[in-house]
Write a structure and sequence with these properties.
alpha+beta; Rossmann fold; Elongation Factor Tu (Ef-tu), domain 3; Alpha-Beta Plaits; 8-stranded antiparallel sheet; 7-stranded mixed sheet; globular; Small_GTP-bd; GTP binding
């Protein structure tokens, strides 16, 4: 019986908080699999996946990079994702097309804020994960503490399958608790042959193996049956149970090592093959056909084509569209149907991606992650399918930008080039938005954070060789209803020859329980005083009115509008009249309400030396921050606070000066909160 070749494919992402070691783990995987012959280093700017000049200058991952390698007869398609919160949208698009992931944690810091964010993103997409506790060679590294933070903050059942040999700078390897053997590495990072468990660790290894068996038996019915019959679990049963628990999301297998010293990478690769799913193990992809019904496509090269574009990038050789092929086969020169743009496209070339290097392919089949050249209309989120079997797959979600800057070309003659460069940026990164302010005429670039916009502007300067002026970042405010109004009457009457317009509406406006929680419209009209088709028109008009609020022209959210009464005219009432009445009626009703300005707030996690805590707390208070927690970890104090985003501009420089360069901070959006009066103007 022949094995399906798709069973030997793993589509894998590397997820973590910034500086936990994702890129170094990726580099060591490439080295261990023979894909590269020299270990790249982040601090030297020699990594494969951080190939962009800005990534090498800043020492962080900015753009998700795909690479492909082989291990033990399996093909691993690997995506190294960013760890900074400003680039969370890159992570979102990557997770949409992955079958599994490795979450990397710092052995000293444990679960950090962005670790938690990317974990939740993976939860939403149902992506099974392994946990790799990295930097076991660091001072203060304790595996049990890192595992405890996983249990407390992420809430899966962590199943530790290794025991460290040595600690901190004496960390030399691990005990494999499944096969009860010692795996060690030389000072140069070369793997030694597997050996028996050292005598001084034998009792501890046996104790931990027993704890692992008991934990697995509690979670897995098949393992529980064997455990009750024999009082122990065999290696085969344990491996199968760990695979089932990983793929169901009921538990996470935890491994450890030091990527920088090249220790623990080979067991991690073995665990990826053993526990994470292949394209055959995940449910068939679901989409919507032309008739609006749900369709499913299995991971079968012979099925009709269904592929999702998750990343678009411009290179010196042309426009690259990165695809995950879910079903079917795609060949060089094929004509496919872009179901999102509703137009045919021709595949010019197919490439196996190795970060910034590419290897040509004749075809790609279900389960592959590749890049193609020649697509003109495809964007991130577009579905490519067989022309005779159209299907639309759900695109990745796009986060709403929260920070804006005004940009203009340094020279007036470059205005057109700047517009073209901004359009290309927004095409490559859907979380960037470009618009023209109708009042000021300024070109406004919006993104997920200060660093996100800084990187985007620098990309324009480097790639297009033009000077760009940047205004101070501005945040996206919202308006909501603090105290509503009842029985607000609005009559729309217009008569200018011919058929007129008449609509009479009575509106109640009230706040929702959660500020910024969206908009609800409902009708409480009785007796048919407003026909149903006009009720829908009033609702559409009310939504039109939410674009600009009375305080400062910001979008309005967090309110409920109820149509309680109204009247019609036998000749002059129409959808248009009632939509107009809804728009202007709600606009005037909002002016009669007590409105509240909302500003975006972020959770800030500041890590500082203990002697600088007082100054940092005072600075957070001056920025209207509200401290929510403080813990001491490995000789440093970690302060968590909620701070208005507008107050964080320039905070990195201020923090460095207050802590002599020893303080760091990260932030993640948490929603909106009331802003103090007076309301800022646009």
């Amino acid at each position: 019986m022949r094995t399906n070749p798709l069973a030997a494919v793993r589509n894998l992402g590397i997820l973590a908080h910034v500086d936990a070691g994702k890129t170094t783990v990726t580099e060591r995987i490439l080295f261990a699999t023979g894909t590269t012959h020299k270990r790249g280093e982040v601090h030297d700017g020699t990594t494969v996946t951080d190939f962009d000049p800005q990534e090498r200058d800043r020492g962080i991952t900015i753009f998700a990079a795909a690479v492909s390698c082989a291990w033990d007869g399996h093909r691993i398609n690997l995506i190294d994702t960013p760890g900074h919160v400003d680039f969370a949208d890159e992570v979102e698009r990557s997770l949409r097309v992955l079958d599994g992931a490795v979450a990397v944690f710092d052995a000293v810091a444990g679960v950090e804020p962005q670790s938690e964010s990317v974990w939740r993103q993976a939860d939403r997409h149902g992506v099974p994960r392994l946990a790799f506790v990295n930097k076991m060679d660091r001072a203060g590294a304790v595996l049990d503490d890192a595992v405890a933070s996983v249990r407390e903050r992420l809430h899966p059942a962590p199943l530790v399958v290794q025991l460290p040999i040595g600690a901190e700078d004496t960390f030399t390897g691990v005990v494999d608790l499944l096969r009860m053997r010692a795996l060690t590495w030389t000072d140069e990072g070369e793997a030694n042959p597997a050996a028996p468990v050292p005598d001084d660790l034998r009792a501890e290894a046996a104790r931990r193996r027993r704890l692992l068996e008991e934990a697995v038996a509690e979670l897995h019915p098949g393992a529980l049956e064997e455990f009750c019959d024999t009082g122990a679990l065999g290696t085969g049963t344990l491996t199968g149970a760990l695979r089932d628990l990983t793929r169901s999301g009921d538990a996470v297998v935890v491994l450890c090592g030091s990527a920088y010293r090249n220790r623990g990478i080979e067991p991690l690769l073995d665990a990826v093959l053993a526990y994470l799913p292949s394209p055959l193990d995940v449910p068939p992809v679901r989409g919507t056909g032309d008739d609006g019904t749900e369709r499913r496509r299995p991971a079968d090269p012979a099925a009709p084509l269904a592929a999702l574009a998750f990343k678009v990038s411009a290179t010196a050789t042309g426009r690259l569209t990165h695809l995950r092929v879910y079903s079917g086969t795609i060949g060089k020169g094929d004509t496919v149907w872009d179901a999102t743009a509703r137009r045919p496209e021709r595949i010019g070339r197919i490439l196996r991606v190795q970060a910034d290097r590419h290897a040509p392919l004749d075809r790609a089949v279900a389960g592959d992650i590749v890049a193609v050249v020649g697509l003109k209309s495809a964007r991130a989120g577009s579905t490519l399918c067989a022309p005779d079997a159209p299907l639309v797959l759900e695109p990745p979600g796009v986060a709403e930008p929260v920070v804006s800057v005004a940009v203009e070309a340094l020279r007036g003659t470059d205005t057109g080039r700047l517009a073209s460069a901004l359009a290309r940026l927004a095409e490559e990164d859907p979380s960037l938005a470009v618009r023209t302010d109708p009042e000021t005429g300024q070109t406004v670039l919006s993104g997920m954070g200060e660093l996100h916009l800084e990187v985007a502007v620098e990309k324009i300067r480097r790639d297009h060789g033009m000077g760009v002026n940047v205004g101070r970042p501005r945040v996206s405010y919202r308006e909501t209803v603090g105290r509503g109004v009842s029985g607000f009457v609005y009559r729309h009457v217009k008569q200018d020859g011919g058929a007129g317009q008449f609509a009479h509406v009575v509106l109640d406006v009230e706040p929702l329980d959660t500020p910024g929680a969206g908009f609800e419209f409902r009708s409480a009209v009785v007796g048919g005083r407003v026909p149903q088709e006009y009720v829908r028109a009033v609702g559409a008009g009310c939504r039109d009115a939410l674009a600009e609020g009375p305080l400062g022209g910001h979008p309005v959210t967090g309110l409920r509008v109820t149509l309680t009464d109204g009247a019609t005219h036998v000749k002059d009432s129409s959808d248009t009249a009632f939509r107009t009445a809804g728009r202007f009626g709600l606009r005037d009703a909002l002016r009669a309400c007590a409105m509240v300005l909302l500003e975006p707030v972020v959770e800030v996690t500041v890590t500082v030396p203990e002697d600088a805590v007082g100054g940092v707390l005072g600075d957070l208070a001056a920025r209207r921050g509200r401290v929510t927690g403080s813990v001491v970890r490995a000789g440093a104090t970690v302060v968590t606070a909620t701070v208005p985003l507008a107050e964080l501009f320039g905070y990195a420089t201020r923090l460095r000066s207050r802590t002599q360069g020893r303080g760091t901070f990260t932030s993640r959006p948490t929603g909106y909160a009331s802003a103090p009066a007076p309301a800022p103007t646009r």
